[in-house]
């Protein structure tokens, strides 16, 4: 496959953008990373993702693929000679897809809810919801890892990428709010997994530093305190 | 693997359940229908889908799979005859993209319009129409179905509109579909309904109207339920 014709449209702080980058790294596929500026959308982005106008977009041999988890599956299917991302058994695949959908549809809105919370009470409620979700994910980790180090077993897989891409923001949120979201008592498996995941060579270079994310979050908050967002 | 018993925990009025039924029928899989009362969920449902406690749930070879799109992919990967998703990775990505779009942008707006009123409902209707315009645009370039000559993943995911859309419009007092404005979509619906496995199993319109009236009343009376 021609890997000189692979581009990722994205932005460094986005957990969704991190997903295809990690997947491409695991497959040892070189790609060009084209960054969108905050608050502006390039012509290329508007052309490649006219429906949602969102990042990430993978452009491969001039064809655009959108939606981070769909992109990760595409990467797995196209570069099939590299390490596999999804499990080989259909049931294990279904479990991985189920939990990835849970993370995006149910859990992530709670995480985002912490930043959006207007008062102390609302923020604390949001924090509780995030923690409850992480306890569920701890259960998923126990089930999927089958005693090994990752959701994918011996190596990083689809679900590791889906959940792990949020670790930067989890840590930044912990720092900004003075709370512990992942803790040894309630989510011991995830605590160990988080260290392992972030230290992995495919992840290290694309996972933003907590400090930088916290700074970025401040800029975002200031920017959106102006006219109410859509 | 494929010869073990298959059970589907479902509910006659659920469009999500129908998707899975269509997928099973496409593959010629024999299964047992277990009807759930969603106002009084069975221990079986609570056991096999503890996270969401929703239908459909597929039970196969002692395992349970939840979430309709996840179930359909599981069915496609377990039983290889009559493929539902395309083989080419780019086409598969497209199919998954449009299935997600249908669910999140179109179906969700219709569902919200059913259980809301006033300004909130107007917002949802506007969203649904915009989504339908995009679907119309996409259908213009297709032959008969999203899947080509035969129905595929996106057709199965969108198929609920053929029985449910009109019912929701009537019950919620809204208008989304217009055959003049959406001719390709209209054609697609006519073709879809003519497909043998679909024709046999669409739920009764009158029953759906009654059922959805109840849902709307119930939801409007308890605003905290989403």
Automatic annotation (TrEMBL), chain A:
Keyword Manganese assigned: no
Family: Belongs to the GST superfamily. Tau family.
Reaction equations catalysed: RX + glutathione = an S-substituted glutathione + a halide anion + H(+)
GST N-terminal domain ranges (all copies): 4-83
UniProt GO molecular function: glutathione transferase activity
Keyword Oxidoreductase assigned: no
InterPro entries for this protein: Glutathione-S-Trfase_C-like, Glutathione-S-Trfase_C_sf, Glutathione_S-Trfase, Glutathione_S-Trfase_N, GST_C, GST_C_Tau, Omega/Tau-like, Thioredoxin-like_sf
Domain GST C-terminal stretches: 89-216
Pfam families noted in UniProt: GST_C (PF00043), GST_N (PF02798)
Gene3D superfamilies given in the database record: 1.20.1050.10, Glutaredoxin
Keywords: Transferase
PROSITE patterns tied to this protein: GST_CTER (PS50405), GST_NTER (PS50404)
Name used for this protein in its record: glutathione transferase
Entry EC number(s): 2.5.1.18
GO terms (BP aspect): glutathione metabolic process; toxin catabolic process
TrEMBL record, chain B:
One GO cellular component term: cytoplasm
Swiss-Prot/TrEMBL keywords: Coiled coil, Transferase
First-level EC class: transferase
Official protein name in the record: glutathione transferase
PROSITE patterns: GST_CTER, GST_NTER
EC number(s) from the headed UniProt entry: 2.5.1.18
Signal peptide: none
Coiled coil: 111-138
Domain GST C-terminal: 88-218
Gene Ontology biological-process annotations: glutathione metabolic process
Pfam families for the chain: GST_C, GST_N
Domain GST N-terminal: 4-83
Entry's family note: Belongs to the GST superfamily.
Annotated PANTHER family: GLUTATHIONE S-TRANSFERASE U8, GLUTATHIONE S-TRANSFERASE, GST, SUPERFAMILY, GST DOMAIN CONTAINING
Coiled coil keyword on record: yes
InterPro entries per UniProt: Glutathione-S-Trfase_C-like, Glutathione-S-Trfase_C_sf, Glutathione_S-Trfase, Glutathione_S-Trfase_N, GST_C, GST_C_Tau, Omega/Tau-like, Thioredoxin-like_sf
Lineage: Eukaryota, Viridiplantae, Streptophyta, Embryophyta, Tracheophyta
């Amino acid at each position: 496959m021609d890997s000189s014709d692979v581009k990722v449209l994205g932005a460094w702080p986005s957990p969704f953008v991190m997903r295809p980058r990690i997947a491409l790294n695991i497959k040892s596929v070189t790609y060009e990373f084209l960054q969108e500026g905050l608050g502006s959308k390039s012509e290329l982005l508007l052309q490649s993702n006219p429906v949602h106008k969102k990042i990430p977009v993978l452009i491969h041999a001039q064809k655009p693929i959108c939606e981070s988890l769909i992109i990760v599956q595409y990467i797995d299917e196209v570069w099939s000679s590299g390490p596999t991302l999804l499990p080989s058994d259909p049931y294990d695949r279904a479990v991985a897809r189920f939990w990835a959908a849970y993370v995006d549809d149910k859990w992530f809105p709670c995480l985002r809810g912490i930043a959006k919370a207007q008062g102390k009470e609302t923020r604390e409620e949001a924090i509780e919801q995030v923690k409850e979700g992480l306890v569920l994910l701890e259960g998923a980790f126990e089930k999927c890892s089958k005693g090994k180090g990752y959701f994918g077993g011996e190596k990083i897989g689809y679900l590791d990428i889906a959940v792990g891409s949020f670790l930067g923001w989890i840590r930044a949120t912990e720092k900004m709010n003075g709370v512990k979201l992942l803790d040894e008592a309630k989510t011991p498996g995830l605590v160990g997994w988080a260290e392992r995941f972030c230290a992995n060579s495919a992840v290290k270079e694309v996972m933003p530093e907590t400090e930088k994310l916290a700074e970025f979050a401040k800029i975002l908050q200031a920017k959106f305190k102006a006219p109410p967002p859509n | 693997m494929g010869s073990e018993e298959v059970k589907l925990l479902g509910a006659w009025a659920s469009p999500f359940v129908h998707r899975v039924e269509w997928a099973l029928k496409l593959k010629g899989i024999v299964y047992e229908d277990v009807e759930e009362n969603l106002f009084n969920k069975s221990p079986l449902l609570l056991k096999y889908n503890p996270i969401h406690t929703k239908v459909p749930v597929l039970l196969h070879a002692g395992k349970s799979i939840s979430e309709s799109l996840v179930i359909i992919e599981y069915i496609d990967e377990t039983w290889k005859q009559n493929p539902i998703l395309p083989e080419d990775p780019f086409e598969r990505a497209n199919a998954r993209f449009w299935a997600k779009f249908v669910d999140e942008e179109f179906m969700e707006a219709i569902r919200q319009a059913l259980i809301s009123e006033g300004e909130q409902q107007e917002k949802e209707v506007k969203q649904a129409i915009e989504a339908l315009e995009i679907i119309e645009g996409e259908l213009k370039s297709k032959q008969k179905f999203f899947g080509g000559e035969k129905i595929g993943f996106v057709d199965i995911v969108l198929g609920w509109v053929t029985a449910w859309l009109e019912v929701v419009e009537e019950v919620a007092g809204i208008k989304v579909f217009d055959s003049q404005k959406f001719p390709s979509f209209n054609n697609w619906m006519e073709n879809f309904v003519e497909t043998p496995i679909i024709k046999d199993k669409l739920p009764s319109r009158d029953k759906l109207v009654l059922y959805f009236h109840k849902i709307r009343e119930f939801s409007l009376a308890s605003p905290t339920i989403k």
